[in-house]
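Re: adenosine-5'-triphosphate structure - here you go.
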Amino acid sequence: MAISSQQATGRQRHPTLVAQTDEFDEYVYYPYYEKSVPGGGYEYVPELEEVVEYEEEPVEYVIERAPQPSSPPPQRTTVVQRTTVQHEVPRYIGSDKDRVRVVVRVRPMSEREYDESRKPQKVLHCVNENSIIFDGGQHSRRFTFDSVFNEASSQDEVFQYCGIKRLVDMAIEGYITTCFAYGQTGSGKTHTMIGAQGASIFRMDEQYRVEHLGIVPRSINYLFQRLRDKTLQSSSPYYIRVSYCEIYNEQIRDLIRPANPDALQVRGSIEDGFYVENLYQTYIETIDELLTILEEGELNRAMASHKLNDTSSRSHALLSIQIEQDVQESDDPNEQMTRQGKLIFVDLAGSEKVKLSHSKGKQLVETNNINKSLLTLGTCISALSDPSKRSGHIPYRESKLTRLLAESLGGHGITLMIACISPSRLCENESMNTLRYANRAKNIENEPVVKTDSKENVINRLKLEVRKLKDENNQLKKRLGGQNSATSLPRLKHRNYDEGSQTSIRSSASSELYDRQDTHGRMNGVSTQKIRSHHETLTRENEKLVRQLHQRDREQGLSNGKRVIVIEEDVPDEETYPSSNRQVTRTYATEPNDEVLELVRRPSYLTRYRTYRNKSSEGESPQRRTTTVVRRAT
Ligand SMILES: Nc1ncnc2c1ncn2[C@@H]1O[C@H](COP(=O)(O)OP(=O)(O)OP(=O)(O)O)[C@@H](O)[C@H]1O
């Protein structure tokens, strides 16, 4: 890894600083600026600061990612016994209606809660696998849910018995299924959905991963297992299409392609309900590809640190996995349909009391937006759970979050809510609120329907998308001035998740069968398989071209939309103060290549994210530039 001074941008060049960190085999070269500081000595001014000065408009907002703990958070032994009774969840729909299933997970008390609370510390007691007692001193109340998981419940136990497997199975059958985590900030939503330590979980050793991965990666694993089994029995292959976005300050941001130039708006249509227009969607074939999207998307999410959570998500994240299969539903070969089941995972941002979290400035703006959208969600849940109000006006339109969850709450989907709570007395009011909403959500009834569309419609829509992708491809090539080399598709890293992680769900057996069917099942001269694979090739090629464009912009000093990694290291300042303990911070800026990304994810390093939004230059929409600052944990 070497950045030469020619490659870097800046106004003045100084001799290249050469340093070696023991994490790298190679030297890191970085042109720096020396500035004398009051009191003597020099400060190394990183290249990046110069780049920031180039921006046409000063920074709009800054998000900082707080230090990640270097090892799993210490846990006190809890007195609650591990539950042994299996949580039974009915697997399929018995009638036209399907109630929203609600499970509650109580996380262990944190160190801070142990230290700060006065006795008695706990207000929640899990009585059995369905009931929980809230004992708030003044009054106590018992709640019953589909499942209750106590502080000692493992990640695997939650996955096995919360009912998510049913949702995966139903999505394969063509239903739209949603699993969302709800709860106050720091209550364990990301821990439950993604895993311990958030996105860093993917870089932990295997043993740790197996134990601590959350529901989303476990469900992805289960989905692929099921699809592999089904593919062997079925003559028609499955196709998986993924999108990942976040709602941050009521703006929708693409987490797969953070520099997506399209303005992302929520639109509504009779056939599709509410959806995000222009959201980047990509076909994937292997579990590795999907896990890479999940990990990268998590790393792109807006995070911050506040008094209640060091790694607080500041946005609602929506991962959507669409499972498509062409089916013959009647004897007429011209009447082919495509099933379009969907599995949606929503990790909501947590509600937050400013008095407790001490949020200020930009964080306060975020908090207000989070609380506002959660309030609308609460209002929708209340209205939908009340039989006298259910048929009246439901205020879905009042926030982007509720618009996008409309199908899942009172619509045609199948829904699972995971309410996360802390047992601590310090969170008494918030936990009670969460339990109340969870209790109401139990009464919401959906009317699930299998989502199908005629194969012809699907082909026409895919054709439109392919046309758009081709236009984008031409534009990208033009902007690159014909100097692109996107001949081969980008390869995704093998992450050894399970032995089948690289196995395509479109196995050779099914392709053969499909080819046979294809010769009879052509429509408008093009098969859906071909058009999907064309779509897939173009999305990947465009992704590669976008990366090349960013690389070129970086080399030419145009920082718009790029991601920069800055490595900070405290070293003894031996040159200026040979015999003192004074330290200086050396800073190295580099592009996010594989080695550096590896470092970002290592738990022994602290990472902070800063995201800047440039003012749009004429004719272009604003783009974000994310800077990741990496520091070794002390
Ligand atoms: N079941 C659990 N077991 C052990 N630790 C947990 C558990 N649930 C949460 N934690 C720890 O509590 C802290 C807060 O959890 P997490 O970040 O998942 O909360 P959150 O609800 O997603 O918060 P926010 O809404 O602010 O993003 C983390 O350090 C996490 O590791």
